[in-house]
Design goal:
Glutaredoxin, about 550 residues, about 25% helix, alpha/beta, 13 helices, single chain, globular, eight-stranded mixed beta sheet, FAD/NAD(P)-binding domain
Length: about 550
Amino acid sequence: MPRYSYQPFPYKTPPELRGARPGRYPVVIVGAGPVGLAMAIDLALHGIRSIVLDDNDVVSLGSRAICWSKRTLEIFDRLGVGERMVEKGVTWKVGRLFHRDREVWNFDLLPEPGHKMPAFINLQQYYVEQYLVERAADFPDFIDLRWKNRLAALEKLAGGARVTVETPDGAYTLETDWLIACDGARSSVRSLLGLDLNGQAFEERFLIADVEMKADFPSERWFWFEPPFHSGQSALLHKQPDDIYRVDLQLGPDADPEEEKKPENVIPRIEKVLGHKDFTLDWVSVYTFQCRRLQDFVHCRVVFAGDSAHIVSPFGARGGNGGIQDIDNLAWKLALVLADEAPESLIATYDEERVFGADENSLNSARATSFMTPKSRMERLFRDSVLHLAREHDFARRLVNSGRLSKPCSLAGFSLQSDAEGEGGVAPGAAMPDAPVGNGKSGWLLNHVGGRFALMAVEAELPEQTPEGVERLVLTRDPGRRRRVNADRILLDTEGLATARYGVGMVYLVRPDQHIAARFRDAAPAKIIAALARARGRALS
């Protein structure tokens, strides 16, 4: 019996079926999972209206994605749900790796202080969706969330798309300037356009079981290679909120998914893992490893994000995190295009940057699969030798792969980034590292940056004239500077961590998604104007 109480969202007859003339909307989003909801909220923060279509009326069934990385939490924080997620979620940063009955080594994913968000939290996807639905309700003039509205047909137009939507009250059509497909691994948009995912599907099957129990397991990631309780295979244990624990068990390529999901087969396996019978099943699923993606994420005015665009294995927490990072990249670009502040070609840079991110995730996922499930005698010998050496030697620990955990990819060298001036600091293309700043309740750097372009000077001067619409920030350790600086905001670096991370004398142009667009030693107005034009897609080379 699931612990989470599923409450259906209300269906409302669409205005098109109540006599209103079929309208044209700036954006239609298909799919009200974490990715689609995050897209709608991000667009609303930019003043862009959207309709969200979903064929269901509840949040996701089962915990599904549970591991949310630091960078994704920073994005969620910008969207207004990050703190709530951390409060409910199980915070962790330590991972432990075992081979048979011995611990090989353990690692700390966030060894340095001075970050608002933890390395990871575990929080069931249904909570994430609930929080996002409730946040979307804060934008009634910008987000029209339509439950029990199923996409039935799609026609690409020269300047947008026309969709047919089926509801309990009948079908209707509407047109949109942009259609964003966030409808998951079984994407109806992808199917209607006749598009296929390309890549690799692995033979191995894995069992996911969520169990409810009282236990004193620490809030850590425990991974076993060939554990005594599951001989010859691998296993993973994670703690979730509400006394729910996630158990992943390798089953092998010949396992029958329907048979393996039956309680009479699942429960004995879990009893061996836990060493007792005092638990109840909450949710069970069987999956196979996949590393596949669309050739292109942008098809005229139809754009794919999340699992509709790319699929990776769950190990490494790259699926849900990758989807949210898609939206972080796409929303501000689409908002600029719709506001006529950037050319439509800017959307092509979403494809460029996020295809790279998807390929990086797939590469890490495929390597993890080969290490976890060796297919030859030599692969097994290599893995076992690495695990043996890793107990004593650092070099071998870098080779152990139970799922490289999600990190934001660098966009260095891509179209929108300018070359860096000088040494040190944060390179263009990187996501901004957070740091504490002495500004009351908003005492974190990333709470002051994001959603718009910004110039940030680190113990440096800003030019008198800067482009309109770019926020001016000065980061300083000197409290007296707030009376002498021409800036929109003065951020006081009370602990010195921000200055150390960004480098004294540097000036940064920051994109709305908190990635560095340019870094200057000499922030001359002409250089800033050129870098901003490039970041907005007007001066691509």
